[in-house]
Amino acid sequence: MKILTKYQEQLKNIIPDGSFVIVNNPQTAKFKYLKEYYKFLHADFPLKSELPTLKEFTQVLEKDHTPASIPKFKKGESKENWIFIIKNKKPIATINFDLLCLAPEVYAGLIIFIHTKKECRGLGLGELLLNLAEDLIKKELLPAQKIKWNLKHLKYIGLFAEINDLKKMADKNKNYKKYQKDNKKLLNFWHKMKFKKIDFNYNQPSFGAGAVPILSLIYKSSATVKSIPQKTLINFLERFTEFTISNKTAARRDPTLNKMEKELKGRKKIKLTNLK
């Protein structure tokens, strides 16, 4: 893969014996890296609300289930991609991302997780992974969709991701101070990577209506803009809800999604604000 050459050279300057492994098909032998990935992700991840999901996925992999037995892969609904940075045959950093179709011929990237082992942070691995993921989306995934669906035109609007909202965490999470330092570093990271906060009351749909909202939705536009169209945002929220719940019918009835749609009703554009 030609795209990898440039990034491999950059990685060698940071981790001389490091290498990339890309997993974009759960049926390949490379899928084994997910076991190690979810082990260290589950151990390091600060958001308690995400731990049940990580634990469940880890347990499935621990039992040596075949990837095809995992519901989202069995249904053929997932186009997830993982990039691992490997050192001594173990993953030390990874990014998990997907490509969502928001409307006919309109696509957006989704960063699901990006994570670096504590002892390897501050080296620039996260920036390297995010840049590589976006390059793969633009130069590999999008052209593949254009060919698959015989599209004459295809529009890529940018990247979405979730981040810890420091203010919400301070208000709701007793363990806020424990993660405050790391979260500020993460905020600086996303700001450096040109992401902006979407100015509305976001709560991840799959958490349910009664969940404590401690996340914000951020967006890196493919163009220089100060807002995101309401229709585009709602389309993303609907596709993302379908992605998290893996059931289109249930997703449309999700109370958290419905609440966000109600708030956004009547707003033609939603402001993008700086993270710092």
Shape: globular
Question: What is the average per-residue confidence, as pLDDT, rounded to a whole number?
Answer: 82
Query: Stretches where pLDDT falls below 50 for ≥5 residues?
Result: none
Largest sheet: 9 strands, mixed
Query: Count of helices?
Result: 10
Q: Based on DSSP secondary structure assignment, what is the total number of beta strands?
A: 9
Q: Order of strands side by side in the largest beta sheet?
A: 1-2-3-4-5-7-6-9-8
From the N-terminal CA to the C-terminal CA, the straight-line distance is 36 Å
Element pattern in H and E: HEHHHEEEHEHHEEEHHHE
- Strand % is 15-25%
Assign a percent range to the helix content. 40-55%
Radius of gyration from the CA trace? 18 Å
How would you characterize the overall build of this protein?
- This protein has 276 residues and is an alpha+beta fold.
- The protein has ten helices and nine strands.
- The protein has a nine-stranded mixed sheet with strand order 1-2-3-4-5-7-6-9-8, sandwiched between helices.
- It starts with a helix and ends with a strand.
- The model has no long low-confidence stretch (mean pLDDT 82).
